[in-house]
UniProtKB/TrEMBL annotation:
Organism: Pseudonocardia adelaidensis
Record family assignment: Belongs to the BlaI transcriptional regulatory family.
InterPro entries membership: BlaI_family (IPR005650), WH-like_DNA-bd_sf (IPR036388), WH_DNA-bd_sf (IPR036390)
Pfam families recorded: Penicillinase_R (PF03965)
Protein name as annotated: Transcriptional repressor BlaI
Domain of life assignment: Bacteria
Keywords linked to the UniProt accession: DNA-binding, Transcription, Transcription regulation
Alphabetical list of Gene3D superfamilies matching this protein: 6.10.140.850, Winged helix-like DNA-binding domain superfamily/Winged helix DNA-binding domain
Length: 113
């Protein structure tokens, strides 16, 4: 799973929050507090597309962008990648479980049942 820079994460958050494919201008407007140029947003969207995280479709003269997978799918893939990198998956899982609050451990137990 490709890692994301801070601006890439912000763009992905915008795409994940959208209810339909969005234009680069829509992303720029959603990130208005960052004062980004349209070319910067297009560069980031292109990079995310090359990483396989975003697809685009032509809409007149513009393109509309959407995420390939949900935020939850992305996080799950990051977690799988982290476990794959661990020489001892059991130890890594034990450390992870020891680091989360009891209510989240209970939710995991419920999911496993």
């Amino acid at each position: 799973m490709p890692t994301l820079g801070e601006l890439e994460r912000a763009v992905m958050e915008t795409l994940w929050s959208a209810t339909a494919p969005v234009t680069a201008r829509d992303v720029q407007d959603a990130l208005a507090g960052r004062d980004l140029a349209t070319t910067t947003v297009l560069t980031v969207l292109g990079r995310l597309e090359r990483k396989g995280l975003v697809t685009r479709e032509r809409d007149g003269r513009a393109h509309r962008y959407r995420s390939v997978a949900s935020r939850e799918d992305h996080v799950a893939e990051l977690m799988r990648d982290a476990l794959d990198a661990a020489p001892d998956r059991g130890a890594a899982l034990a450390r992870f479980l020891g680091s989360i609050p009891e209510d989240e451990r209970a939710a995991l137990r419920d999911l496993l049942d």
